[in-house]
Amino acid sequence: MVRFYKVYDFSKHGQVPQEVNSLRTIVIEDKKICLAHTQTGYYAVDNRCPHAGAILSSGWCENEDLVCPVHRYKYNLVTGRGKQGDYIETYPVEVRTDGVYIGLKKKWWQFF
Ligand code: FES
Question: Residue 12 is inside which H or E element, if any?
Fold first, then answer.
């Protein structure tokens, strides 16, 4: 089960709260997530590169790929698949009428 967290509120942050072709670090419940805004929408992925641990939100977008700033490995923002065969985790993003939401799997204690 997924719980969605509002990360941008359009009434506070405006209709385009993050520039197109930009990356930001978003912290939800102590978890750091890289939020990308591209020409095709918003994408949320892990913020740590699986290769050597670089901060992915310090990288950049090339179409639907996220480029790691250290060794420039590329990860697809939709699938999380790296060109080298490794993966980063992806998270669901919903753009609703009032803002942008990222979904995280509920932890067991959140069911009670
Ligand atoms: S740390 Fe990201 S590609 Fe090496």
Answer: helix 10-13
65 bridge partner residues: 62, 76
27-48 pLDDT, tens per residue? 998 999 999 999 999 999 999 9
Could you tell me the distance, in angstroms and rounded to a whole number, from the CA of residue 91 to the centre of ligand 1? 20
CATH of domain 2-111: 2.102.10.10
Pairing of strands 31-38, 22-28: antiparallel
Question: Which ligand 1 atom sits closest to the C-alpha of 49?
Answer: 2
- List the domain boundaries for the chain: 2-111
Nearest to 92 by CA among 107, 75, 104: 104
Q: Is the CB of 51 under 6 A from ligand 1?
A: yes
